[in-house]
Design brief:
Layout: E1 18-21, H1 27-37, E2 41-46, E3 60-61, E4 64-65, H2 66-71, E5 75-79, H3 85-96, E6 100-103, H4 109-112, H5 117-123, E7 128-133, H6 148-154, H7 157-160, H8 175-198, E8 203-207, H9 209-215, H10 219-226, E9 244-247, E10 253-256, H11 261-270, H12 285-290, H13 292-304, H14 308-317, E11 322-324, H15 328-333, H16 335-340, E12 343-348, E13 352-357, H17 381-387, H18 392-401
Parallel strand pairs: 1-2, 1-6, 2-5, 6-7, 7-8
Antiparallel strand pairs: 3-4, 9-10, 10-11, 12-13
Helix pairs in contact: 1-8, 6-9, 8-9
Protein backbone atom coordinates (compact mmCIF):
# COMPACT_ATOMS: atom_id res chain seq x y z
CA UNK A 1 0.00 0.00 0.00
CA UNK A 2 1.32 3.46 -0.83
CA UNK A 3 1.63 6.22 1.70
CA UNK A 4 -1.25 8.71 1.82
CA UNK A 5 -0.59 11.45 -0.70
CA UNK A 6 0.14 14.13 1.89
CA UNK A 7 2.50 12.15 4.13
CA UNK A 8 6.19 12.98 4.29
CA UNK A 9 8.02 9.82 5.29
CA UNK A 10 11.66 9.96 6.39
CA UNK A 11 11.90 6.30 5.38
CA UNK A 12 11.54 7.26 1.71
CA UNK A 13 14.31 5.41 -0.13
CA UNK A 14 15.67 8.49 -1.90
CA UNK A 15 15.51 10.84 1.10
CA UNK A 16 18.70 12.91 1.24
CA UNK A 17 19.17 12.87 -2.54
CA UNK A 18 19.10 16.29 -4.23
CA UNK A 19 18.10 16.55 -7.90
CA UNK A 20 18.26 19.69 -10.05
CA UNK A 21 15.66 19.56 -12.82
CA UNK A 22 16.76 21.91 -15.61
CA UNK A 23 14.71 20.15 -18.29
CA UNK A 24 11.45 20.95 -20.08
CA UNK A 25 8.83 19.07 -22.10
CA UNK A 26 8.53 16.13 -20.89
CA UNK A 27 10.97 13.23 -20.59
CA UNK A 28 13.55 14.94 -18.37
CA UNK A 29 11.07 16.58 -16.00
CA UNK A 30 9.06 13.36 -15.66
CA UNK A 31 12.22 11.44 -14.75
CA UNK A 32 12.80 13.99 -11.97
CA UNK A 33 9.19 13.53 -10.86
CA UNK A 34 9.73 9.79 -10.46
CA UNK A 35 12.75 10.48 -8.24
CA UNK A 36 10.87 13.06 -6.19
CA UNK A 37 8.01 10.63 -5.61
CA UNK A 38 10.36 8.44 -3.59
CA UNK A 39 11.86 11.13 -1.43
CA UNK A 40 14.47 12.98 -3.46
CA UNK A 41 14.57 16.74 -2.97
CA UNK A 42 13.90 18.01 -6.49
CA UNK A 43 14.56 21.65 -7.35
CA UNK A 44 12.95 22.69 -10.61
CA UNK A 45 15.00 25.42 -12.32
CA UNK A 46 13.09 27.53 -14.85
CA UNK A 47 13.95 30.63 -16.85
CA UNK A 48 12.58 33.76 -15.14
CA UNK A 49 10.58 34.85 -18.18
CA UNK A 50 10.16 31.57 -20.08
CA UNK A 51 8.85 28.89 -17.71
CA UNK A 52 8.59 25.21 -18.62
CA UNK A 53 6.08 25.16 -21.51
CA UNK A 54 4.29 22.23 -19.87
CA UNK A 55 2.68 24.81 -17.59
CA UNK A 56 0.63 25.89 -20.59
CA UNK A 57 0.10 22.53 -22.28
CA UNK A 58 -3.40 21.08 -22.41
CA UNK A 59 -6.49 22.20 -20.47
CA UNK A 60 -6.27 24.65 -17.60
CA UNK A 61 -8.57 25.71 -14.78
CA UNK A 62 -8.76 29.32 -13.61
CA UNK A 63 -5.61 29.96 -15.63
CA UNK A 64 -3.68 27.17 -13.91
CA UNK A 65 -2.24 24.47 -16.17
CA UNK A 66 -3.36 21.04 -15.02
CA UNK A 67 -0.62 18.96 -16.67
CA UNK A 68 1.94 20.90 -14.64
CA UNK A 69 0.24 19.87 -11.40
CA UNK A 70 1.24 16.28 -12.20
CA UNK A 71 4.63 16.95 -13.80
CA UNK A 72 5.71 19.44 -11.14
CA UNK A 73 4.64 17.50 -8.07
CA UNK A 74 7.14 17.09 -5.24
CA UNK A 75 9.36 19.81 -6.77
CA UNK A 76 10.52 23.11 -5.37
CA UNK A 77 10.47 25.74 -8.11
CA UNK A 78 13.05 28.45 -8.61
CA UNK A 79 13.85 30.83 -11.45
CA UNK A 80 17.38 31.11 -12.82
CA UNK A 81 18.74 32.46 -16.10
CA UNK A 82 21.68 30.15 -16.69
CA UNK A 83 23.08 32.28 -19.51
CA UNK A 84 23.95 35.11 -17.08
CA UNK A 85 27.04 35.24 -14.87
CA UNK A 86 24.87 35.29 -11.75
CA UNK A 87 22.79 32.37 -12.96
CA UNK A 88 25.95 30.37 -13.66
CA UNK A 89 27.27 31.20 -10.20
CA UNK A 90 24.10 30.06 -8.48
CA UNK A 91 23.86 26.83 -10.45
CA UNK A 92 27.45 25.88 -9.64
CA UNK A 93 26.72 26.51 -5.97
CA UNK A 94 23.63 24.32 -6.22
CA UNK A 95 25.58 21.65 -8.08
CA UNK A 96 28.20 21.50 -5.34
CA UNK A 97 25.65 20.08 -2.91
CA UNK A 98 23.50 18.12 -5.37
CA UNK A 99 23.60 14.52 -6.50
CA UNK A 100 21.90 14.70 -9.90
CA UNK A 101 21.28 17.25 -12.64
CA UNK A 102 18.78 16.45 -15.39
CA UNK A 103 18.89 18.66 -18.48
CA UNK A 104 17.61 18.53 -22.05
CA UNK A 105 19.23 21.46 -23.81
CA UNK A 106 20.66 20.89 -27.28
CA UNK A 107 24.21 19.50 -27.09
CA UNK A 108 26.70 22.28 -26.54
CA UNK A 109 24.31 24.69 -24.82
CA UNK A 110 25.52 24.12 -21.26
CA UNK A 111 29.10 24.25 -22.51
CA UNK A 112 28.41 27.64 -24.13
CA UNK A 113 27.27 28.95 -20.75
CA UNK A 114 30.34 27.60 -18.96
CA UNK A 115 28.25 24.86 -17.32
CA UNK A 116 29.44 21.78 -19.19
CA UNK A 117 30.52 18.53 -17.61
CA UNK A 118 34.06 19.79 -16.98
CA UNK A 119 32.81 22.71 -14.89
CA UNK A 120 30.04 20.79 -13.14
CA UNK A 121 32.23 17.82 -12.21
CA UNK A 122 34.95 20.18 -11.00
CA UNK A 123 32.38 21.71 -8.64
CA UNK A 124 31.21 18.26 -7.54
CA UNK A 125 33.09 15.12 -8.64
CA UNK A 126 30.23 12.95 -7.29
CA UNK A 127 27.61 14.58 -9.50
CA UNK A 128 25.53 12.57 -12.01
CA UNK A 129 24.55 14.60 -15.07
CA UNK A 130 21.65 13.13 -17.07
CA UNK A 131 21.45 14.62 -20.57
CA UNK A 132 18.11 13.83 -22.23
CA UNK A 133 17.84 14.75 -25.92
CA UNK A 134 16.03 13.52 -28.97
CA UNK A 135 19.10 12.02 -30.66
CA UNK A 136 21.85 11.84 -28.05
CA UNK A 137 25.08 13.77 -27.62
CA UNK A 138 26.83 12.55 -30.76
CA UNK A 139 26.09 11.60 -34.34
CA UNK A 140 24.81 13.54 -37.37
CA UNK A 141 21.41 14.31 -35.80
CA UNK A 142 22.67 15.31 -32.36
CA UNK A 143 22.00 19.03 -32.73
CA UNK A 144 18.56 18.66 -34.26
CA UNK A 145 15.53 19.61 -32.15
CA UNK A 146 14.02 16.37 -30.91
CA UNK A 147 10.61 15.55 -29.45
CA UNK A 148 8.86 12.33 -28.50
CA UNK A 149 6.82 12.39 -31.70
CA UNK A 150 10.00 12.08 -33.74
CA UNK A 151 11.10 9.12 -31.66
CA UNK A 152 7.73 7.43 -32.15
CA UNK A 153 8.20 7.87 -35.89
CA UNK A 154 11.89 6.96 -36.19
CA UNK A 155 11.92 4.02 -33.77
CA UNK A 156 9.57 1.95 -35.93
CA UNK A 157 6.62 2.33 -33.56
CA UNK A 158 4.43 4.41 -35.89
CA UNK A 159 5.12 2.12 -38.84
CA UNK A 160 3.72 -0.80 -36.82
CA UNK A 161 0.71 1.06 -35.49
CA UNK A 162 -2.60 1.44 -37.32
CA UNK A 163 -4.76 -0.54 -39.69
CA UNK A 164 -3.08 -2.46 -42.54
CA UNK A 165 -4.61 -0.21 -45.19
CA UNK A 166 -4.22 2.98 -43.17
CA UNK A 167 -1.38 5.40 -42.48
CA UNK A 168 1.26 5.00 -39.77
CA UNK A 169 -0.30 6.13 -36.51
CA UNK A 170 1.15 8.29 -33.74
CA UNK A 171 -0.12 8.01 -30.15
CA UNK A 172 -2.25 10.91 -28.89
CA UNK A 173 -0.13 11.28 -25.74
CA UNK A 174 3.55 11.49 -24.80
CA UNK A 175 4.46 7.82 -25.17
CA UNK A 176 8.12 8.17 -26.17
CA UNK A 177 8.72 10.87 -23.58
CA UNK A 178 7.21 8.71 -20.84
CA UNK A 179 9.26 5.66 -21.81
CA UNK A 180 12.39 7.81 -21.93
CA UNK A 181 11.54 9.27 -18.50
CA UNK A 182 11.30 5.83 -16.95
CA UNK A 183 14.58 4.86 -18.62
CA UNK A 184 16.29 8.05 -17.45
CA UNK A 185 15.23 7.47 -13.85
CA UNK A 186 16.62 3.93 -14.09
CA UNK A 187 19.84 5.23 -15.66
CA UNK A 188 20.27 7.82 -12.92
CA UNK A 189 19.84 5.21 -10.21
CA UNK A 190 22.33 2.95 -12.00
CA UNK A 191 24.86 5.78 -12.17
CA UNK A 192 24.33 6.53 -8.48
CA UNK A 193 24.91 2.87 -7.63
CA UNK A 194 28.18 3.08 -9.55
CA UNK A 195 29.09 6.22 -7.64
CA UNK A 196 28.55 4.39 -4.37
CA UNK A 197 31.33 2.00 -5.39
CA UNK A 198 33.76 4.37 -7.09
CA UNK A 199 33.04 7.74 -5.46
CA UNK A 200 32.84 9.31 -8.92
CA UNK A 201 29.85 10.70 -10.78
CA UNK A 202 29.35 10.39 -14.53
CA UNK A 203 27.28 11.53 -17.51
CA UNK A 204 24.09 9.75 -18.59
CA UNK A 205 23.50 10.19 -22.33
CA UNK A 206 19.82 9.45 -22.98
CA UNK A 207 18.55 9.65 -26.57
CA UNK A 208 14.75 9.51 -26.65
CA UNK A 209 14.83 7.47 -29.88
CA UNK A 210 16.56 4.55 -28.13
CA UNK A 211 14.13 3.46 -25.37
CA UNK A 212 11.32 3.36 -27.94
CA UNK A 213 13.43 1.12 -30.14
CA UNK A 214 14.11 -1.15 -27.18
CA UNK A 215 10.46 -1.58 -26.19
CA UNK A 216 9.63 -2.76 -29.71
CA UNK A 217 11.28 -6.03 -28.74
CA UNK A 218 12.70 -8.47 -31.30
CA UNK A 219 12.22 -6.41 -34.46
CA UNK A 220 15.95 -5.67 -35.01
CA UNK A 221 16.97 -9.32 -34.62
CA UNK A 222 14.08 -10.48 -36.82
CA UNK A 223 15.32 -8.13 -39.52
CA UNK A 224 18.96 -9.05 -38.98
CA UNK A 225 18.42 -12.79 -39.18
CA UNK A 226 15.41 -13.06 -41.49
CA UNK A 227 15.06 -9.75 -43.28
CA UNK A 228 11.57 -9.63 -41.80
CA UNK A 229 9.78 -6.28 -41.48
CA UNK A 230 6.52 -6.61 -39.55
CA UNK A 231 3.61 -4.86 -41.28
CA UNK A 232 0.79 -2.96 -39.62
CA UNK A 233 -1.84 -5.38 -38.36
CA UNK A 234 -4.28 -3.08 -36.56
CA UNK A 235 -5.42 -4.63 -33.29
CA UNK A 236 -4.38 -8.08 -34.40
CA UNK A 237 -1.15 -9.83 -33.56
CA UNK A 238 1.06 -11.77 -35.95
CA UNK A 239 1.89 -14.11 -33.06
CA UNK A 240 -1.53 -15.30 -31.87
CA UNK A 241 -5.29 -15.08 -32.41
CA UNK A 242 -7.96 -14.28 -31.51
CA UNK A 243 -6.55 -10.97 -30.35
CA UNK A 244 -8.64 -7.92 -31.07
CA UNK A 245 -11.21 -5.47 -29.78
CA UNK A 246 -14.86 -6.48 -30.13
CA UNK A 247 -18.10 -4.52 -29.80
CA UNK A 248 -20.79 -5.73 -27.40
CA UNK A 249 -24.56 -5.64 -27.83
CA UNK A 250 -24.82 -2.45 -25.77
CA UNK A 251 -22.27 -0.62 -27.90
CA UNK A 252 -19.28 -0.99 -25.56
CA UNK A 253 -15.90 -2.45 -26.45
CA UNK A 254 -13.79 -5.23 -24.95
CA UNK A 255 -10.28 -6.47 -25.68
CA UNK A 256 -9.47 -10.18 -25.86
CA UNK A 257 -6.01 -11.73 -25.70
CA UNK A 258 -5.10 -15.40 -26.21
CA UNK A 259 -1.32 -15.44 -25.90
CA UNK A 260 -1.55 -18.80 -24.08
CA UNK A 261 -2.80 -21.86 -25.97
CA UNK A 262 -5.03 -22.93 -23.07
CA UNK A 263 -6.74 -19.53 -23.05
CA UNK A 264 -7.35 -19.68 -26.80
CA UNK A 265 -9.04 -23.05 -26.35
CA UNK A 266 -11.23 -21.76 -23.51
CA UNK A 267 -12.35 -18.79 -25.59
CA UNK A 268 -13.43 -20.95 -28.50
CA UNK A 269 -15.36 -23.29 -26.22
CA UNK A 270 -17.02 -20.29 -24.58
CA UNK A 271 -18.21 -18.82 -27.88
CA UNK A 272 -19.59 -22.15 -29.05
CA UNK A 273 -16.92 -23.08 -31.60
CA UNK A 274 -14.98 -25.90 -29.91
CA UNK A 275 -14.46 -27.68 -33.22
CA UNK A 276 -11.96 -25.04 -34.26
CA UNK A 277 -9.61 -26.16 -31.51
CA UNK A 278 -9.27 -29.51 -33.30
CA UNK A 279 -7.84 -27.89 -36.43
CA UNK A 280 -4.16 -28.58 -36.96
CA UNK A 281 -3.39 -24.89 -37.39
CA UNK A 282 -4.98 -24.04 -34.02
CA UNK A 283 -2.11 -25.70 -32.13
CA UNK A 284 0.26 -22.71 -32.50
CA UNK A 285 -0.12 -18.97 -32.07
CA UNK A 286 1.27 -18.31 -35.54
CA UNK A 287 -1.15 -20.83 -37.01
CA UNK A 288 -4.08 -19.16 -35.31
CA UNK A 289 -2.88 -15.76 -36.52
CA UNK A 290 -3.07 -17.00 -40.10
CA UNK A 291 -6.73 -17.81 -39.50
CA UNK A 292 -7.54 -14.59 -37.65
CA UNK A 293 -10.51 -13.77 -39.91
CA UNK A 294 -12.27 -17.00 -39.01
CA UNK A 295 -11.50 -16.70 -35.30
CA UNK A 296 -12.48 -13.03 -35.13
CA UNK A 297 -15.77 -13.80 -36.81
CA UNK A 298 -16.57 -16.51 -34.26
CA UNK A 299 -15.58 -14.45 -31.22
CA UNK A 300 -17.00 -11.19 -32.52
CA UNK A 301 -20.39 -12.70 -33.37
CA UNK A 302 -20.78 -14.18 -29.89
CA UNK A 303 -19.73 -10.97 -28.13
CA UNK A 304 -22.08 -8.91 -30.30
CA UNK A 305 -25.06 -10.88 -28.94
CA UNK A 306 -24.32 -10.00 -25.29
CA UNK A 307 -23.93 -6.78 -23.33
CA UNK A 308 -20.57 -5.88 -21.85
CA UNK A 309 -21.27 -7.03 -18.29
CA UNK A 310 -22.49 -10.41 -19.55
CA UNK A 311 -19.39 -10.81 -21.72
CA UNK A 312 -16.99 -9.92 -18.92
CA UNK A 313 -18.72 -12.26 -16.48
CA UNK A 314 -18.74 -15.16 -18.94
CA UNK A 315 -15.05 -14.75 -19.75
CA UNK A 316 -14.19 -14.56 -16.07
CA UNK A 317 -16.05 -17.80 -15.37
CA UNK A 318 -14.23 -19.43 -18.28
CA UNK A 319 -10.85 -18.12 -17.01
CA UNK A 320 -10.28 -16.43 -20.35
CA UNK A 321 -8.40 -13.12 -20.64
CA UNK A 322 -10.53 -10.07 -21.35
CA UNK A 323 -10.69 -6.41 -20.37
CA UNK A 324 -13.14 -3.61 -20.99
CA UNK A 325 -11.87 -0.79 -23.21
CA UNK A 326 -11.86 2.17 -20.81
CA UNK A 327 -11.81 5.89 -21.24
CA UNK A 328 -10.47 7.98 -18.36
CA UNK A 329 -13.92 8.28 -16.75
CA UNK A 330 -14.07 4.48 -16.56
CA UNK A 331 -10.55 4.34 -15.10
CA UNK A 332 -11.47 6.79 -12.35
CA UNK A 333 -14.49 4.67 -11.36
CA UNK A 334 -12.90 1.21 -11.61
CA UNK A 335 -12.78 -0.88 -8.43
CA UNK A 336 -9.36 -2.41 -9.18
CA UNK A 337 -7.73 0.98 -9.63
CA UNK A 338 -9.46 2.08 -6.43
CA UNK A 339 -8.13 -0.96 -4.56
CA UNK A 340 -4.61 -0.14 -5.72
CA UNK A 341 -5.08 3.57 -4.97
CA UNK A 342 -3.76 4.22 -8.46
CA UNK A 343 -5.38 7.66 -8.47
CA UNK A 344 -5.05 9.75 -5.32
CA UNK A 345 -6.17 13.12 -3.98
CA UNK A 346 -3.53 15.80 -3.48
CA UNK A 347 -4.13 19.13 -1.71
CA UNK A 348 -3.15 22.13 -3.82
CA UNK A 349 -2.74 25.78 -2.86
CA UNK A 350 -4.20 27.02 -6.15
CA UNK A 351 -6.98 24.53 -6.94
CA UNK A 352 -7.90 23.13 -3.53
CA UNK A 353 -7.76 19.36 -4.15
CA UNK A 354 -6.70 17.60 -7.34
CA UNK A 355 -6.75 13.95 -8.30
CA UNK A 356 -3.83 12.46 -10.20
CA UNK A 357 -1.93 9.22 -10.68
CA UNK A 358 -0.32 7.97 -7.49
CA UNK A 359 3.36 7.01 -7.22
CA UNK A 360 4.28 4.45 -9.83
CA UNK A 361 4.79 1.38 -7.65
CA UNK A 362 4.34 0.21 -4.07
CA UNK A 363 7.23 -0.52 -1.71
CA UNK A 364 6.35 -2.37 1.49
CA UNK A 365 9.02 -0.87 3.74
CA UNK A 366 10.04 2.46 2.17
CA UNK A 367 7.00 3.79 0.30
CA UNK A 368 6.86 6.86 -1.89
CA UNK A 369 4.45 9.75 -1.44
CA UNK A 370 3.07 12.82 -3.19
CA UNK A 371 3.79 15.70 -0.84
CA UNK A 372 2.42 18.50 -3.02
CA UNK A 373 1.26 19.18 -6.58
CA UNK A 374 3.12 21.39 -9.05
CA UNK A 375 4.02 24.74 -7.50
CA UNK A 376 3.72 28.21 -9.05
CA UNK A 377 6.57 29.49 -11.20
CA UNK A 378 9.54 30.43 -9.00
CA UNK A 379 7.63 29.94 -5.76
CA UNK A 380 10.66 28.66 -3.81
CA UNK A 381 13.41 30.87 -5.22
CA UNK A 382 13.98 32.89 -2.06
CA UNK A 383 14.00 29.81 0.18
CA UNK A 384 16.47 27.87 -1.97
CA UNK A 385 18.87 30.77 -2.49
CA UNK A 386 18.79 31.70 1.18
CA UNK A 387 19.63 28.07 1.92
CA UNK A 388 22.73 28.49 -0.26
CA UNK A 389 23.86 31.31 2.02
CA UNK A 390 22.89 34.21 -0.24
CA UNK A 391 21.66 37.24 1.68
CA UNK A 392 18.84 39.55 0.67
CA UNK A 393 21.21 42.08 -0.91
CA UNK A 394 22.84 39.46 -3.15
CA UNK A 395 19.46 38.07 -4.17
CA UNK A 396 18.35 41.59 -5.06
CA UNK A 397 21.50 42.04 -7.17
CA UNK A 398 20.79 38.81 -9.02
CA UNK A 399 17.27 39.99 -9.76
CA UNK A 400 18.59 43.31 -11.04
CA UNK A 401 21.04 41.42 -13.29
CA UNK A 402 18.21 39.34 -14.74
CA UNK A 403 19.61 36.12 -13.30
CA UNK A 404 16.43 35.42 -11.32
Amino acid sequence: MTQPATTTDDRAPLAGLRVLDLATLFAGPLAATFLGDFGAEVIKVEHPRKPDPSRGHGPSKDGVGLWWKLLGRNKKTITLNLSTPGGREVLLRLAKDSDVIIENFRPGTLERWGLGWDELSAANPRLVLARVTGFGQQGPYARRPGFGTLAEAMSGFAALTGEPDGPPTLPPFGLADSVAALTTAYAVMTALAGRDRTGQGQVVDMAIIEPMLTVLGPHPIWYDQLGYVQPRTGNRSSNNAPRNTYRTADGRWVAVSTSAQSVAERVMRLVGRPELTEEEWFATGAGRARHADELDEAVGAWIARHNRDEVLAAFERAEAAIAPVYDIADVMADEQYRALESVTEVPDEELGTVRMQNVLFRLSRTPGAIRWAGRPHGADTEEVLTGLGLDADRIAELREEGAL
